[in-house]
Structures are given as C-alpha cells and as structure tokens.
Amino acid sequence: MKHVINIAVVNFYAEWGNKENNLARILDYTEAAGKRGADMLVMPETCLTGYMDEEGKSRTEKMHARLAETIPGPSTEKVAELARKYGMFVVFGMSEKDPADETKIYNSAAIIHPDGKMEAYRKLHLPFAEGNWAVVGDEPVLIDTPWGPVGITICYDTYCFPELIRYYRAKGARLTLNCTACPDGNCTAGSAELAIPAYAFGNYIFIASSNLVGNDHGAHFMGGSGVVGPAIDKGGVHTYVGHMFKDPNSDQAEMYLGTIDLSMADVNTDIPLFRGDWRPELYKKMCEDVLAN
After folding, report:
1. Which among 45, 53, 217, 282 could disulfide-bond with 179, CB atoms 3.0 to 4.6 Å apart, if both were Cys?
2. Dist CA 71 CA 107 (whole Å)
3. How many beta carbons lie within 10 A of that of residue 238, not counting itself?
4. Structure-derived torsion over alpha carbons of residues 36, 246, 228, 53, reported in degrees to the nearest 10
C-alpha cells in the first residue's frame, strides 16, 4: 500500500444554474491538477450547478432537478476523459438523477477513477432546504485506491454525524474526501470549524475538504478548502494543504495542491481506538435502544 499522495482541493465559484460554464471550469481545474501531478482532485458539493434552492417551484421544476444527470452521464464522461489521461481520481458534487426512477434526485458526489470507472456517493443527511429537491442516500462509500480505502462524505454528513467518519476509519481508511457547500453563517461555519479538527484528531484520519466560494443565489460561501490531519507531535491536527475555514485569505477562488503522508494517521495513533477500546457491539445495543423508543 502506498502512503504519500498528491492531493488537490478547490475553492470553486459555482455560477448558479449555469452547468455549461461550471463544467468547463471543472474540466479546466482537472487539467490543471493533472498537469501538476495530482493523484486525487476533490471539488465541492453541487459545483456542477450551484447549491441554493429555488423557492416557489415544484420539485420537478427546480434547477437541481432540471440540470440533474445520471452517473455515468454527459458531464462525468467528459471528466473521466481527463481522469484517464492523467491517471487521477476526481470527485465532484452534482445533482444526480436516479437511472431507475427519474423522479428521484440525489445530492451526490461523482467519483471517477483513473481508469474511468465511475461511482456515486449519495448524501446521507439533508439539512435545511436540500430536502426540497433531493432525497436521501442510504449507503456509505469507500473507494479502493493504491493508498488503501478512502471514504466519501458530503458537508452535513461530515460536520454533524461523527458516526460516518468513525465507520470509515474503522474500515481502514486514513483519508476521507469531503465535498462541501458551507456558507459563512454562524451555524454552518461553526459546525465546520469545530468538527473538522475534532474528527481528524479523534479518529487519527486526514480530511480533505473542498468548498464553494463567493455568492450563490442569495448565500455567500466561505471557501476554506484544505487537508487537515494528525500533527507530528501527536497533540492535535495540522492543515497540510490549503486553509481552514475563515483563515486569512481562505475565501478566494483557487486550487491548493500538496503532498501528504498518510502513514502519519497510523504513526500518531497512540490511543488504541480500533485495537480493543472501540466497542461497536455496545454501540449497536445503544442504537437499537434508541430505535425501540
């Protein structure tokens, strides 16, 4: 298994409702990352279309539904051409049409492998107005990579549901990829700022986040794309690539690319979380008790 990886994250400005323009720039970023030797590129939630809900319209008339595509589909096929060309993984957010039922739209991350293989991660938890256009997914996704299994999350999944990242780490992941659309409101920004370092430290895992930036149909997104992971002194976390949310100059449209050593997730694990201290059989009973009430 490989340990050292070149990874890129992007503060991406999504022009709301302009899929053609957004796709052109997704392709440009993919080309730029590939030319610079990226092994993996992570882009934000709904970056293909923009994020905010379109109020006052039925589900089928909403922008996310009108611009939704299947995975594979026209947009992912174009990204896959570049992924194959440069031998890289590309993950980006989009509204996904269920091929078996076109009335179902998911808030998804398209996952493209270096050989062009495609997968979809469908967001498990939908906050605020997302439920107005999307339905929830039901499956966590771990992708197979030369660096071991890598987990996929989208925004709210990451910040408010620690079960998912803990599950990925317990399955052997040293890295999770977080496609996010996090605006700079107190609630959302606070959740992101607190959760990323806490979960990276508590699980001894790297979290790579890629966020929207700029104005999007009435909301302002704060950027802050970066890769956070265990610090070498075992006493906290370090931002290895990019910026944390609200750091100086973290709110500009740009790509950050860096090299990280995933073996630090194991070297810095003094607490034997997954060697006896973690008790999933007990937590199963606790969850069953909650479900029974």
Report:
1. 45
2. 12
3. 15
4. -80
Structure tokens at 16: 């709301």
pLDDT of residue 13: 97
pLDDT of 84-100, one tens digit each? 999 999 999 999 999 99
Q: For residues 258 and 198, what is the distance between their CA atoms, to the nearest angstrom?
A: 22
72 preceded by a cis bond (ω within 30 of 0)? yes
Per-residue confidence band for 187, with pLDDT thresholds at 50, 70 and 90: low
Instruction: Output the DSSP codes for 155-214.
Output: THHHHH-HHHHHHHHHTT-SEEEEEE--BSSHHHHHHHHHHHHHHHHHHT-EEEEEEBEE
The model's pTM is: 0.96
- What pLDDT does 271 receive? 60
Residue 131 pLDDT class (50, 70, 90 cuts)? very high
Distance CA 9, CA 45 (A): 12
